[in-house]
Amino acid sequence: MPLPYVLLSAAVSLDGYLDDTGPERLLLSGPEDFDRVDGERASADAILVGAGTIRADNPRLLVNSAERRAARIAAGKPEFPLKVAVSGSGELDPAAPFWHTGGDKVLCTTERGAARARALGIAADVVALGAELDWRTVLAYLHDERGVRRLMVEGGGSVHTQLLRQRLADELQLALAPLLVGDPDAPRLFGPGAYQDGRLRLVETRRLGDVVLMRYQPTAPGTGATVSAADRHWLALACDLAAQCPPSETAFSVGAVVVAADGTELARGHSREGGDAVVHAEEAALAKTDPADPRLTTATVYSSLEPCARRASRPAPCARLILDAGVRRVVTAWREPDTFVPGADGSGVLAAGGAAVLLLPELEARAKAPNRHLTG
Ligand SMILES: NC(=O)c1ccc[n+]([C@@H]2O[C@H](COP(=O)([O-])OP(=O)(O)OC[C@H]3O[C@@H](n4cnc5c(N)ncnc54)[C@H](OP(=O)(O)O)[C@@H]3O)[C@@H](O)[C@H]2O)c1
């Protein structure tokens, strides 16, 4: 099920705090970074915060620049992004500026919280999403019912922690401010718990006055049939690799990446690489791994096209090579059409061998792009 692109945005002190314990909100960013954040808001379909942030900071969460608002309108978007609040209790101040500024607002809450919020007269679409709030349900609701494709999450710590731990965050934008809070009772950006193992990918660093912006992407694949945000990033990379293949009239252009459970890239490959006219992407990638590497049994293979089930050019098709390597999770963007092999069902071969096979159709067009001359 497609979910919005989830961007976590926060400013932190050098010692990792989001705020101090004083009654006023601690201003961590400087003017240049506030302007950058305004630009990010303008590019989002919705901005989400937890109820704790509304209680602590009383934010309005607007696009402040008139030019950016005008550009949104010119692009056919509402002047302001949708504002989304998340609360279990529904215990919110109906007079808070959050509800009375900007455009549309929605409160995603529980059945109990919805009853309380309605009784309080919260000026928003109050949406009950079950007895408990599940983040995938919240994101699917925003995607399917509110058309949200890019979601900016502006805190607080409890919300950021859950989205990162549940592998639902596509990107983390951290503004590191040259301040030290030093108060153990102050809120931290991320709480304790089980995060992905391994390293996140550093995408960018940028100096903005005395603040440093750091952008990261989580890297850990999902598990079994559960899709993580990083699954989409790795599959997008496989699609980009497909675009690097030498063109052929008799074979597809495909890219593949093998990724360990902790998000470490083990190998990548693409069709016909290294002057081998018949090598397939998954085959090329797996050939670069150590067959004795214990990480293969919990690794994921990303392939822009479903791994092949039958082939004439080599003894073993890629679905078999993947199973023989011990890999039991495959993510792909496109089921193999009948162009060269009628009725190919690599997914079926993999599933029969005990592998979880996930199809992410949102990347199908990108997987097909370098093969347009074959598929029409
Ligand atoms: N520096 C920054 O960039 C930045 C940005 C934002 C916030 N902050 C700071 O962060 C602090 C607030 O963070 P916080 O962690 O206390 O609060 P928070 O994350 O903003 O909100 C937590 C609240 O959201 C609701 N919630 C979150 N997950 C839920 C779930 N799975 N199910 C049901 N309800 C859920 C609950 O509301 P109910 O209690 O209503 O059930 C929960 O108490 C403030 O000090 C603020 O200044 C800093």
How is this structure best described in words?
The protein has 376 residues and is of the alpha/beta class. The protein folds into two domains: 5-217, 3-Layer(aba) Sandwich (Dihydrofolate Reductase, subunit A), CATH 3.40.430; 229-375, Cytidine Deaminase, domain 2 (3-Layer(aba) Sandwich), CATH 3.40.140. It contains twelve helices and 14 strands. A nine-stranded mixed β-sheet has the order 5-4-3-2-6-1-7-9-8. Helix 9 (318-324) runs parallel beside helix 10. The radius of gyration is 23 Å and the shape is elongated. 44% of the residues are buried. It binds NADP nicotinamide-adenine-dinucleotide phosphate. NADP nicotinamide-adenine-dinucleotide phosphate (NAP) is lined by residues 10-11, 18-19, 25, 28, 49-53, 56-57, 86-89, 91, 133, 154-159, 162, 187. The site of NADP nicotinamide-adenine-dinucleotide phosphate (NAP) has 27 residues, from strand 1, strand 2, helix 2, strand 3 and helix 6.
Key terms for this structure?
single chain; 376 residues; alpha/beta; Dihydrofolate Reductase, subunit A; Cytidine Deaminase, domain 2; 2 domains; nine-stranded mixed beta sheet; five-stranded mixed beta sheet; 12 helices; 27% helix; binds NADP nicotinamide-adenine-dinucleotide phosphate; 5-amino-6-(5-phosphoribosylamino)uracil reductase activity; NADP; DHFR-like_dom_sf; Riboflavin_Biosynth_HTPR; Riboflavin biosynthesis protein RibD
